Amino acid sequence: MTDHLGSARATIRVLVVDDEPLGRQRVLELLAPHDVEVVGTAADGVEAVSAIRTLRPDIVFLDVQMPRMSGLDVIREVGSMSMPVTVFVTAFDQYAITAFDMSAIDYLVKPFKDERFVEALARAREKAQTKNVVRLHEQLLSLLQGGQAPVPAPPPTASPTYLDRIAVQMHGKVRVVRVPQIDYITASGPYVDLHAGAQRFTIRESMQNLSENLDPALFVRIHRSTIVRLDLIDTLLRHEGSEYEVQLKSGIRLRVGRSRLETLEKQLGGFK
């Protein structure tokens, strides 16, 4: 990457990768006041690989959870030694805490504040303007090899696969919601609501990404817009017209999509 990180070019070239249009727009708006050149955007990992290879950006803001190819898959495909300076963008703080926090790789947890973005951009710019990016490449390679030092490994009792906590931006602060505290999750446009007892927390994330990152032994997706914690389901109710609902132990009733019924019954152990 020496030729496109050298001093001959003053303007930093940036690529923005996010499968959600609002996510891309948010980063583009935050980049606008800064002296950078946005060379392109990508809506998934496949597009990202092509853009990195052809556009050769100095910095890439790379979403972690994407269809077809995740952010880490992008690095594997491009190769750690060929990657530009990378700022990961994720809705799940588990990724950041267990993989990126103690490394030279920066990250942004959605939804992030403007000030946090400016900090990440400044750090990325400094790295991109430095010819010696070997350590950055070593960090990416370490991450791909399973979190070998200096990237910290997850604690022995923690699942390396499924979410344990979710970061929620509220009133200028970031609140960490433990996944076992969540009763059920509902979708509202590009946002989802995490219902935990009497509390409700809103984050910008897709139901698909959430369902793929929640332990299926603990949660079940009963509708395209609803995920429920299994041990809170008290009754599966059938109504006229083959309409189904689950009633939680709290008394709350939630609709079951017909296409989700078979999966629900299996996870309930055949309970009908």
Describe this structure in words.
This protein is of the alpha/beta class. The chain folds into 2 domains: 143 residues, Rossmann fold (3-Layer(aba) Sandwich), CATH 3.40.50; 103 residues, Beta Barrel (OB fold (Dihydrolipoamide Acetyltransferase, E2P)), CATH 2.40.50. It is 30% helix and 31% strand. The chain is built from 9 helices and 15 strands. The strands form 4 sheets. It has a 5-stranded parallel sheet with strand order 2-1-3-4-5, sandwiched between helices. The chain has a 5-stranded antiparallel sheet with strand order 10-9-8-12-11. Helix 3 crosses helix 4. The longest helix is centred in the middle third of the chain and has 15 residues. The protein is elongated. The protein starts with a helix and ends in a 5-residue tail after the last helix.
What attributes characterize this protein structure?
single chain; about 270 residues; alpha/beta; Rossmann fold; OB fold (Dihydrolipoamide Acetyltransferase, E2P); 2 domains; 5-stranded parallel β-sheet; 9 helices; 15 strands; about 30% helix; disordered N terminus
